[in-house]
Task: inverse folding
């Protein structure tokens, strides 16, 4: 029983970590895109 709970908690933690990484990567890509546009405008 305890093992199943620990596995469920571990999977949940990994899923949340993966979602956070994707969000950060997306935000970084947006910032990079804006920076490139500013460089091109200058």
Result:
């Amino acid at each position: 029983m305890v093992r199943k709970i620990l596995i469920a908690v571990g999977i949940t933690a990994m899923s949340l970590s993966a979602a956070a990484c994707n969000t950060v990567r997306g935000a970084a890509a947006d910032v990079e895109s804006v920076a490139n546009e500013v460089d091109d405008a200058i």
